[in-house]
Known about the structure:
The protein is α+β, with helices and mostly antiparallel strands and 114 residues long. Helix content is 20%, strand content 22%. The chain has one domain: HIT family, subunit A.
Amino acid sequence: xxxxxxxxxxxGEIQGDIxxxxxxxxxxxxxxxxxxxxxxxxxxxxxxxxxxxxxxxEAIMGKLFSVAKTIAAQRGVSEDGYRLVVNCxxxxxxxxxxxxxxxxxxxxxRWPPG
Length: 114
Ligand code: 5GP
Ligand code: ZN
């Protein structure tokens, strides 16, 4: 947990380009953006993967969606559309083991994702 990259961004030990910050949730621009808008939205409390959610985590996970909606509106992509992604474990492509929601927008998205 002490080695968690996103906990370090939360704690200011690593610089993050923060776009949203409240008591429960932090959001920052992805350092390697895969779309013109690529924001990572995290619970401030460390949770490694979706598999580690427990009873009571419904509110924080719901809040990630609410913050995504707010950021999408701020970035002016609500009407054109955006994609929210949470990768869980290796085969899904998770590389940082602190739950994060990707908000991707401002380009056409293909389906199915790679
Ligand atoms: P995952 O592959 O785990 O779903 O997503 C991890 C994301 O974190 C990737 O999109 C990657 O570009 C991003 N990332 C990795 N290291 C950093 C960093 O130091 N700062 C920021 N802002 N994003 C990072
Ligand atoms: Zn963490």
